[in-house]
Amino acid sequence: MTVKTILTEPNKLLRQISQPVDHVGENEQKLMDDMLETMYAAKGIGLAAIQIGFPKRIIVLDLTKDKAERNPMYFVNPTIHSKATEQSTYEEGCLSVPDQFAEISRPKQIEIEYLDYHGEKKLLKAEGLLATCIQHEMDHLEGILFIDYLSKLKKSMIIKKLSKQKTKSERIVV
Ligand code: GNR
Ligand code: NI
User: Fold this and answer.
1) pLDDT in the model for residue 63
2) Which of 79, 114, 117, 123 would bridge with 75, disulfide CB 3.0–4.6 Å?
3) From the CB of 35, is ligand 1 less than 6 Å away?
4) Could you tell me if the CB of 106 is within 6 A of ligand 1?
């Protein structure tokens, strides 16, 4: 398992639409392992494959805070079967949008279908933080980031800040 570099906004790859996986094999499992390691190393609770540069419809999650009781979840080719009309709001962050947070409303409950780590078809009803997180990750598969839900002004201020930080850190490296 390898910790990979997480792409940050602005980056064209993050805006790419991820492609369905046609078979969950060794390569896909290796990718999921690397995604999980990368996510744990960054102290995130979810990660989409595109965040480490692979435009595949794969998501990993682990909502547990306690390292001793890890509960990794894997979702391949997830699709939403139904979503509640009722919304819930969470303060969201994103490893690809470092140090930025905003309250985002999304359907409170969702029902999804996906393939698990072993390529088996599964159904899941999710609510609360799990539902929010799955939707946040599924947005990544469409090239959508949570800042896209903010006003144009807020969004452009965040992107401007992130691009400045990027040129700064690149200057240090060079
Ligand atoms: O680590 C993360 N925390 C988080 C908090 C609220 C809503 C969504 C998330 S996902 C985020 C990790 C990430 O960027 N996944 O794509
Ligand atoms: Ni994210």
Assistant:
1) 96
2) 114
3) no
4) no
Cα 62 to Cα 77: distance, rounded to the nearest angstrom: 18
In angstroms, the CA 100 to CA 120 distance is 36
Q: Which domains does the chain have, with CATH numbers?
A: 12-169 (3.90.45.10)
Task: Using the atom order of ligand 1, give the atom closest to the CA of residue 136.
Answer: 8
3-state secondary structure of 108: coil
In the numeric block, the tokens 């401007």 are attached to 160
Task: Render the burial of 65-74: b for 16+ CB within 10 Å, e for the rest.
Answer: eeeeeeeebb
Q: Is 95 in the pocket of ligand 1 (CB under 6 A)?
A: yes
DSSP string, 27-47: HHHHHHHHHHHHHHHTT-SEE
pLDDT in tens, 88-106: 999 999 999 999 999 999 9
CA–CA distance, 21 with 56 (Å, rounded to integer): 6
